[in-house]
Amino acid sequence: MKLVKLLANLGYGSRKEVQRLIRSGVVTDDTGRVLGENEVPPHHQIRVRGEELDPPAPLVIMLNKPDGYTCSSEDPGDTVYDLLPPRFALRNPGLNPIGRLDKDTTGFLLLTDDGKLLHKIIHPKSGCLKVYQVQLDRPLEGHEGELFASGTLVLNSESRPLLPAKLEVLGEKEALVTLHEGRYHQVRRMFAASGNHVLGLKRISIGGLTMPDDLEEGEWRELEPDEVKAIFA
Questions:
Q1: Does the model's pTM come out above 0.85?
Q2: Active-site residue 30, yes or no?
Q3: Statement to judge: residues 118 and 166 lie in one domain
Q4: Which CATH number do you get for residue 19?
Q5: How many domains does the chain divide into?
Q6: Residue-wise pLDDT tens for the chain (233 aa)?
Q7: What is the rounded CA–CA span in Å between residue 151 and residue 164?
Q8: Nearest to 173 by CA among 212, 201, 213, 139
Q9: CA 186, CA 161: separation in Å to the nearest integer?
Q10: Catalytic hit among 102, 104, 113, 137
């Protein structure tokens, strides 16, 4: 891949804009040597205005989603893409969330430009369980765990029962819920079906990977290859 196409795919501008960028002399290697349009040094050696290039594709990002952000660039208001470098919205292939979180749901969100990986993680047969921490409006009554695990719970306006889900009680109004699937507003609708109301919802893990405690709300980082493998562990 030529340097122009590489930089354009990473969101540094259109091909014409990238050509002008290269011709201005601000694209160099790690020794400071100015690069030409047809040069293709190793990715880690390329600099733009002295800064290392953004990570190449395939890229997987872990983000701690705050409340009030949507997961689609087409939605009005704040989106998770506003939390990333502006160039990331222009990458080709583009970054997509691996299982969206609702606007008022927080926590562990993965984004990737790897379509095969995305579909592998979200498919129920992948075994990638999703764990949510739930804050409830009213105390648990004791029947919820059996209901969620039954495999017979049918949500309002649906005809297909949910896959069995696990409930772990943490307190009178607090619990962990583990899902095999990710239907629209699923956790909230499950508790609504049991006669309760969710006040707070946070995803804390996907598959074998748990969001680290030191990743603050609104922060993100690239996943290492062994962390991607851990999702399927």
A1: yes
A2: no
A3: no
A4: 3.10.290.10
A5: 3
A6: 789 999 999 999 999 999 999 999 999 999 999 999 988 899 999 999 999 999 999 999 999 999 999 998 777 889 999 999 999 989 999 999 998 899 999 999 999 999 999 999 988 778 899 999 999 999 999 999 999 999 999 998 899 999 999 999 999 999 999 999 889 999 999 999 999 999 999 999 999 999 999 999 999 999 999 999 999 98
A7: 4
A8: 139
A9: 12
A10: 102
